[in-house]
Amino acid sequence: MPSIMWFRETDIRMHDNTALSASCDQSQSVIGIFFITPETWAVHNIAPCRIQLMLRGLQLLEKNLASRNIPLFIYKILSYKEIPNIILDLANTFHVQHVFANKQYEINELQRDQLVCSLLSSHEKKLHCLDDQSILKPNQLKTGKGEYYTVFTPYKKAWVKHVLDNPIISLPVPEKKQTFETNNYQHPNLIKEISSTEIEQFNSAVDPDLWPAGEKHALKMLDTFLDENINKYKSTRDYPILDKTSKLSAYLATGMLSARVCFLQAKSANDNKIIDGNTEVDCWISELIWRDFYKQILISFPRVCKDRAFKQETDKLVWHNNNEHFEAWKNGQTGFPLVDAAMRQLKKTGWMHNRLRMLTAMFLSKFLWLDWRKGEAYFMQHLIDGDFASNNGGWQWSASTGTDAAPYFRIFNPTTQSERFDSDGAFIKKYCPELASLDKKTIHNPYVYAPEKAKKLDYPKPIIDYKSTRAYAIEQFKAL
Ligand SMILES: Cc1cc2nc3c(=O)[nH]c(=O)nc-3n(C[C@H](O)[C@H](O)[C@H](O)COP(=O)(O)OP(=O)(O)OC[C@H]3O[C@@H](n4cnc5c(N)ncnc54)[C@H](O)[C@@H]3O)c2cc1C
């Protein structure tokens, strides 16, 4: 009797895949399944470029699985609602008793799994949902009081201790399974292959060549990063033009790369240390721990999944509703060059540098005083690495509504940030070519440093006054 391995939007790989390994251990033969759910993806703001990356990854996964005699059935349906009956029907057809999947921790996904689980149980079949997305299970660590951590530093300390006491391992790609006859299986929603038309239906302006798909590519990128850049990570990571961060986030978000494998390889490049090794490498490992941290926030404070602030008192803030400001921010037309360059980078490439994510998120929430949830949704709609936990965590950090967030009075000054992290304006020039003629001082704030020259450019005046909007934001937080 085969078992079913239900691949999700977050585990498109064969290496170190917890549920895939478990299903291969359970049965001599395995059937893979995946659901394309355009309606649900739209409601969840999944970016078209991320969907395209996933589908391109699935094309490769299908071939890799075939080399292990594991067929992959891909169904195209509208939403999650249709999933329970399809799985039951497939399980009945092939006399399957065990269905395996890696957990997804967001609320709708948990509800979907609950429905599948109940339906299968009522037919004496079982859905096994396993932890796989993060290095440690999100519910692994608790404080001395038995509570989940809400501050990163003590979380990281407990994380490191736990990993030293319980070493992390990764799982190999499964061996070949037994073949079995699936040719007669038919279902109206089954698609024969993921064609380019199928992929292009999800309309994206991002060039797919920027993001080659598949685990082979992701593992190669990890290798290259470890060989070439990790030893300078801490010193270079804040300068967007250098482009020296790993850019692995898209592969981690779609699960083409395992976070455990990243951790284990970084650790071995760090003289087998997690902390107190090479500070440059320690710093990268710490970012992987931030990723785990936000996943544990998601499971322990599910209100963040319901459009609510982590710091509940900040739900009382009354945000402005200026659509012109929101449009200017989205289109990189705020008159603050580094903010604009960053927003254009996002639209063009599907990715934005971490420092610029913090800057643009603070700009939206603190200077434009627009609800951070609007920005959070816009990021998800455009990020190739869109990941609910990290995106929500990053937005709430920037808006000072989140766990371990930036204090409300610590607001990045867009001009100072620009002078510090893009000192010669090279990043600005890359995405805002209309500013290319400006010298390296003027480019950071053209209308203040050279108003006459600025007026002649096809570039907007700053849409807000920095000082008064900053003071307004601080007042609002103080009044809480
Ligand atoms: C407002 C905002 C929104 C964000 N949205 C997302 C998102 O949707 N998806 C996402 O993966 N990251 C998000 N981040 C975190 C971070 O910006 C990206 O992970 C990082 O820029 C990805 O680039 P990289 O792969 O080169 O990272 P590297 O610097 O090479 O870091 C390695 C990996 O560590 C993880 N990581 C790094 N920084 C963080 C962080 N601050 N929080 C959590 N994990 C981190 C990522 O998985 C990343 O790939 C967001 C941050 C902010 C401030």
The total tally of domains equals 3
Q: Mind telling me the CATH class of the largest domain? A: Mainly Alpha
The order of strands across the largest sheet is 5-4-1-2-3-6
N→C terminal distance: 60 Å
Count the E strands: 6
Number of helices: 22
| Percent range of helical residues | 40-55%
CATH topology of the largest domain: DNA Cyclobutane Dipyrimidine Photolyase, subunit A, domain 3
Q: Which architecture name of the largest domain does CATH use? A: Orthogonal Bundle
The rough form would be described as globular
- Kindly name the structural category: mainly alpha
Mean pLDDT: 97
Ranges where pLDDT stays below 50 over 5 or more residues in a row are: none
Bound molecules: flavin-adenine dinucleotide
Characterization of this structure:
The protein has 480 residues and is mostly helical. The protein has three domains: 1-132, 3-Layer(aba) Sandwich (Rossmann fold), CATH 3.40.50; 135-169 and 215-300, Serine Threonine Protein Phosphatase 5, Tetratricopeptide repeat, CATH 1.25.40.80; 312-478, DNA Cyclobutane Dipyrimidine Photolyase, subunit A, domain 3. 47% of the residues lie in helices and 6% in strands. A six-stranded mixed sheet has the order 5-4-1-2-3-6. Helix 12 (279-300) packs across helix 17 and helix 15 crosses helix 17. It is globular.
